[in-house]
Amino acid sequence: MKSVGIKLSLYINYFVFAILLNSVGIVILKSQNNYGVDEVQASILEAFKDLPIAIVSFFIASFLPRLGYKKAMLIALALVSFACVTMYFGNSFDTAKLLFATVGVSFALIKVSVYSMIGMVTANEKEHNSLMSSIEGVFMIGIALAYFLFPAFNNENDPDSWLNVYWLLAGLSLLSFLFLLFTKFENQPEIPGANLLDDFKQMFALMAKVLTIVFVISAFLFVMIEQGIMTWLPSFNDKVLHLPENISIMMASILAICLAIGRLLAGVITKKINWIWVLVFCTVGAMLLVVFVLPKTINATVGEINSLSDIPLIGFAFPIVGLFIAPIYPLLNSVVLSALPKKLHSPMTGLIVVFSALGGTLGSRVIGWLFKNQGPEKAFYYTLVPMGLLLISYFILKKLTTQHAIKA
Known about the structure:
single chain, mainly alpha, 17 helices, globular
């Protein structure tokens, strides 16, 4: 297998889906403004995205190697190309639900394929850690780009102008499809079981392992934090800082940029520092930002805003939390996948995706409920609870991985 071409293909596919997936926060804001839905109704878009990811990953991850990772990714790219065109012509909240349901199904195929193939093109745990972190970093760059793409197409005098971005997204998906189509996959993935039923049983066997249980709970908790903040940050900027809609969206890109930088740095830092101390430092730093910086952001005096330069410096401070939470997800994934034989990477990735999707949905719904019932000023404080639980889980995972609790 020519790993350079394969790695490039993985980067491109993940980049395209980063834009599509994480436009949900922007579409939630547009749905409130354009389609007349409230915060709780709008937050259902997160469920339309995440529940298909969870369901499809659960049922297909264990035997996806039989279909082939390349075919799976091609199917995913074709589906989202069609969904983007449908969103443009549909222009309704129901069409937005359909869009994110399709993106969810497609991303399940993409993520299981990408995570499984990382193990096929890396030779050891350090390489795995580095590639995992860098791919997730590129994912965050795609998220950051989304926060600039949508405002670039959005004209506040024309409520439908933002829909033109979906022609670009459809085009990017088709380009990624063509690149992948002509990329050669020479090595075949290892099949986890003897037949389809046995493949499925492998996932259930993994679920019985203590390390797996602790890990999926950790992944669930992290995605609650990340998606809760990322999805609702545009609305926070709009309702608390009273920023114009376009600037609210662009400001949210600071979080994504910080996440990208944090994940790219993590691949370098963990070559010299043990992963657990990196995660402990980052989590404590994130908690301190929530406790000390968030209140100052909420109480900031904001005058008339016409551009990013008009925003007071404190308005840029809270999104820096992304720099601290960034390394958590890829490092947790790398730690558990590196402890498994390659043939179990696909079913394990299925579990990762399932619980990540459920965590994302719950995080967004909780924040949406808090926005409506407790006020947007208090909503983000809830993240201190899962952060505290994560700190405990790191030490349990360290002990379990050191003991090699999961064996082939």
